From TrEMBL:
Belongs to the alpha-carbonic anhydrase family. It catalyses: hydrogencarbonate + H(+) = CO2 + H2O. Pfam families: Carb_anhydrase. Keywords: Lyase, Metal-binding, Zinc. It comes from the Eukaryota. This is Carbonic anhydrase. It comes from Aphanomyces invadans. InterPro entries: Alpha_CA_prokaryot-like, CA_dom, CA_dom_sf, Carbonic_anhydrase_a-class, Carbonic_anhydrase_a-class_CS. Its EC number is 4.2.1.1. Its cofactor is Zn(2+). Reversible hydration of carbon dioxide. GO terms for molecular function: carbonate dehydratase activity; zinc ion binding. CDD domains: alpha_CA_prokaryotic_like. PANTHER family: CARBONIC ANHYDRASE.
Amino acid sequence: MWQCYATRPELTSAVALSPIGLRDHPQITTQLASFERHEFLPVLIAAVVALSSGATTPKPVPQLRQSPINLPRLSVVPNKGSFSIQLDTAPAVVSHENHTVKATWNAGAKSFLKLNSNVYNSVQFHPHAPSEHTIGGVRYPFEVHFVHQDKNKNLAVVGILFELDPNDEPNPFLDQYLSGFSQLTKPGDKFTLDSLDPSSLDVADSNVYRYPGSLTTEPYTEGVEWSVLQEVHTMSLSQLEAWESVIHHPNSRPVQPLNGRSVKLVAKKY
């Protein structure tokens, strides 16, 4: 084994430069054991060369624009074309994703989100319970995220908050989405909706919070344009229980620091 090691000049030079003996260094003791079994030689070489060069693991870049956040009570500012949305009826495949239940749809050109001059297509939605965003510190039982993507694969998400209806009236949109939940007994299960109609949400008729943020699930990628409707919709207790019959645990990320970001409450019409 050591004769084989000595025939590798990159290893012998690295060890010669190392301030301590090869076998005495804790970072590569386990690598040597593997090497003696004639395994993972490239890993051993990399470890020794890294030691001789003083290489260290790079520190992760701090992420300062994370979601969700607490949305403060704000005065409304004019909507000068900075936000418009339309959701149209389309078929959807509803799938159990373990941590949520996602509805993937292709609603076509009639479903879009427009932020300033950039157009995003609607691709899927999924809920979180309880809500991820809060308004003035108030958390709601349910939040649905409508995920949009532009031609360059940049993401924009529209969040809609739900509270329990005082008369326990069901939400028509959620009724459609939840209709096949009895078929979702394990992750990977799915069902198809021939027609999912979002018109009852009336998404264009609400002021909207706007801020820059991130995905709320791993890898928490930043650069996501967030829009959260100020209007809170309602749902019935039985609808919330239907959700909990499939997703048995909270799936919400805690509120993240604002870190100096600007949040605006944009008027619904312009």
